[in-house]
Design goal:
This is Cytochrome C oxidase. InterPro entries: Cyt_c-like_dom, Cyt_c-like_dom_sf, Cyt_c_oxidase_monohaem-su/FixO. Keywords: Heme, Iron, Metal-binding. It is a single chain. With 554 residues, the chain is α/β, with parallel strands linked by helices. Helices cover 30% and strands 9% of the residues. The chain contains 16 helices and twelve strands. The strands form five sheets. It has a four-stranded mixed sheet with strand order 4-3-8-6, with no helix packed on it. Strands 1-2 form a two-stranded antiparallel ribbon. A two-stranded parallel sheet has the order 5-7. A hairpin with a 5-residue loop joins strand 1 and strand 2. It is globular. The chain starts with a helix and ends in a 5-residue tail after the last strand.
Length: 554
Amino acid sequence: MNVRFFALFAGVFCITLAVITQGVLPFVEPSSRTTRVTSVVRTDFGQLKWTVSEATDYTEQQRRGRNIYLREGCWYCHSQFVRPVTGEIRRWGPVSEAGEYAYDVPHLLGTRRIGPDLTRVGLKYSDEWHLAHFYNPRMLVPDSIMAPYRGLFHEPDAAVRIVDDGAGNRTLERTEVTKGLFDFDSQQAIQLTPNANGLLFVPLKARERKPIILTPNDEYTGETVSIAAETESVAALVSYVQKLGTNRGKWRDLFEPQSLEVMDATMPRSEEWIAYGKEVYERRCIGCHGAKGDGNGPAATFMFNQRPRDFTSAVFKFRLTKEPLPTDGDMLRTITRGIRGTAMPPWYELPLNDRLAVIQYIKYELAVDRSDPASPYAFFVEEPPGPPLYIGRPPTPSQTLLDRGKEVWQVAKCWECHGQGGKGDGQKAAGLKDDLGFATVPADLTSGQFKSGPAVEDIFRTITTGLSGTPMPSYRDSFPDEDRWALSYFVVALSAYKDPLSLQPLSIKKEARAALNDLELVADKPERAYVPDPSVPASGPPAPPGEKQAPAGG
C-alpha cells in the first residue's frame, strides 16, 4: 500500500458517501419528501401570523428558469440553505425547512457562498433589479465578482436611430430588428429611457406596444441607442429566483433586522462624514441613482416601471413631517427597509455608520439645485425639515372598522386610481405621471408589497403625508385620524390571505381563517405556528402569560 492507493480509496469513499447522502437517503427518509412548511400570512385584520401550510411546485416558467440556473452554473457560487444559527437567521431569514425542497431535484443546497445565499432572495429585489444584475452585476455592485450574463439578452449588433414619430414624440426607427421588438402600429405605447451611455433596455412587454423614447430631463441627448432586449430565457431565470423563499409566505414583513422604526436620528453636518458617505454611495448607490444623484445611473434604463430617485430635486416620497423634506430618521428607515416592489433593496446589512454617512452625502452634496452654478441651492440647508409628526397607537381592528374603511375608500375616491379591488387599475391609472414627467403606476394594494412598509402604521403614515412627487395626495386635512386608521386597515386587508408571489388567494379552510383572525391568537414564530390539521400537534414554547397559544387545529 502506498499514498496513491490511499488517495484513490479516499476519493472513491467520498464519492460513494456523497451519492448515498445526497441521492439515496433523501428518498429513504420520509421527512425529506414532505411539502409541509411554516409560512406567514396576513389576516383580515392586518396581523401577520405563522401557520402550517403546503409548499407549491414550480410553474413551467420557474422550472425552465431553474434549468437555466443549473446550466449556467449559478449554483457553483450561490447556496440555498439557512442554517439554525443566529448569524444566518439575522442575515438571510428563517431557518430552512425540508418542505421547501420538496420539488427540488437535484437539491442545490451548497455551502461555498462565494456569492450571497439565495434561499430567501424571492421578492427582496424587483424583476427590474434582477434584469440589470444579470446584464452586468457591476452596474449595481461595483465590487461584484459575478460574471455578466449578457448572453441571455438579445443585443442587436447595430445601433438604432431615435427619430420623430410625426406626433411630437421620439421613437425608434423602423428596422427589421425593431419590428421584431415592438408593434409600431399598436394603440398602446411603452415609454423607455436610455441611460446616459445610450443603452436602452427593452422588456418583453414591449412586443405588443409602440416605443416612446422618454427623456423629460435630458437623461440622454444622443441620436442612436444600443439595445439590450429581455428574452424568454432571462425572464424565466428571474421568475425562478423570485420563487425562492416565497413558500414561507410574507416572512419578510416580520423580518426584525429590516423592521426599523425611528422618528429622528439627526446628526450635525460633518465634512468627514460627508466624504465617507460619498465612498458608501459610490460603492452601493451609484448604479441606479447615478454619479450626480439624478436617478440616471447605468442601471436606470432597466427600471422602466419605476425610475430611481432623483436626489437633486430633493423630492422624497417617505417622510413623517408636515413639510416636504424628510428627517434623517425618515431616510434611515427607507434605506434600512428598502422600498418593497421596486429596485431599491433593503440595506439592513450595511453598518449603521455607513447608512448615516450616506444620508449626510445625499443631504448636503446631492440634494442641491445647481442650475445656477454661481448660486447653488442646498435644500436641506435652506429648508431644514420640520419636527416629525406624531402617530399614535392604532385602534384595535374589528369588522366595524373595516366597514368604515371601505366607506372612506369610496368617499376619498381611492378607487379612481387604485381600482375598486385595489389592483391599481382604476379609471385614472393610465396616464398618471410623477413631477419629473415619468409615467407612474398606482400600487397594486392586493400584492402586500407596500412601499412604505407592511404595518398598518406605515399605511397610516402614507395616507397622512401622501407621497411627494407623485399623484398620491395627503389626506391629513381631509379626514380625521379615526377615518385614516379605518382606511389603513381596509388597505392592509386587501392583501389578506394572498400568495405573495402569484397574488392568488391561498387555499385555506374557513375554520382556519376564523382561527387566524382571532386577535388573541399568538403565532409570531415558526415554532408557534398555527396548525390547521388537528392530527398534527402544536409544538414550540408556550405563549407568554395572558396570550393564547396557537392551537393544534382549526
